[in-house]
């Protein structure tokens, strides 16, 4: 039996101090992004193309429109922002820097608020990393920024003829059982010095991507940086150097480089609810 005052599991309700804290956080980050030249966009809650963003499309809340085309609630903002700017608004604006404050929805009834930005047709990952660091500083926290390169676990899996799911699932024990010295070195990498020590020991076809990761790490002006070359995230569109921000078992932010509509771009999303929990603590 469902009582009329109940809300679905996973949905969000803010009131009193929580609602005020959410508004103040969103305003603070929005003001910084505005000063950095980002303009705001609010995309539709409904989309025809969310399956291209999400690794597991069973997480999508799907239904059919009046033409029997599949529609889903927005489960990710990134690719929709790029498509709308480049395809729908391309004739009316040439602006490349956009931010949004809006929720995403996943099956069965989960909603999560995000504050994110997309820097279209820009490929210097260090710029978006340093912007993320500046935002964290202004919020007043110093969490771990974990830097990775999605191509490295893919190349390692191909080199060793193993399933890339070992990296996706973080099955370190099974990787160590392979007893491969250079792989064990990569598993242990945590910082710039670790990566520099092992980079010459890996197969040639993996070295270039490790060097790209190393170059980005050296140029980031953030003091709580961790390098995880073998990490494999769950979003489908990141195709180069990317990152996540973590504190107290909360993922605060994800961001990185991706390609959409033939354009290389950068973006990130802060997870509002995780940030609020950390700031409250």
UniProtKB/TrEMBL annotation:
Gene3D superfamilies: Bira Bifunctional Protein, Domain 2. Residues 18-219 form the Class II Histidinyl-tRNA synthetase (HisRS)-like catalytic core domain. One of its GO terms (biological process) is L-histidine biosynthetic process. The keyword Acetylation does not apply. One of its GO terms (cellular component) is cytoplasm. GO terms for molecular function: glycosyltransferase activity; histidine-tRNA ligase activity. Keywords: Amino-acid biosynthesis, Glycosyltransferase, Histidine biosynthesis, Transferase. This is ATP phosphoribosyltransferase regulatory subunit.
